[in-house]
Predict the structure.
Amino acid sequence: MNDFLKLADDLGWSYNVSDTPNERGEVCVELEKHSPQDQDFIFYIWFETDNECDFSDKLEEYWRGFDPSEEAINWVGPDGHGINGAPYDLQDIINDMVDCKEMLRELVVKFHNQAYPRKKFDNYNNGLTCRFDCYDSNDDEMQAIRNILTSFENARTYASGLYSNPIRWELDEMIGRFKNIVRDKIEIGFTNRV
């Protein structure tokens, strides 16, 4: 487990480990990192004692289930603006939670690769987190995925060419976020078939 905690530390996460198992024999790790908007992003993973694969699986499960919109609601007051140190604007809160999910993705990739060295995730290889040979799919499906992701890259290239247009950065950001959402859906669909 120390190797995993070192990886988290290297990525800027702080952690706290509870060595006292619960009634199911699980221990808890609390992970914390400041978001880009400087919010404390904290979550807990309960896993089987000394079982690194279980820890990695539970972390991936948390990441896949993390809903930035749902999480953002926890930081919004009755007036529709940020509370408890969250950004004032609702869109900034949502964007920050999307960034938190990306921080989780980075952590998941590193931990998964440590726990499962024979079935490694690549860091955004061809726009996907997982190598293509990890997916249970045929050549036509792989080509369709490549075409979708290439279309996103083409749209981002077009947006980057709008030098004097004030919406250039907004378009580029929207396309990038949409690409991440599509990539997540593709990953879930194919990795659930393996």
User: Anything to note?
Assistant: The CA atoms of residues 32 and 70 lie 19 Å apart. Strands lie at 14-18, 26-34, 40-48, 121-125, 128-130. Helices lie at 2-10, 52-65, 68-73, 90-115, 139-160, 168-191.
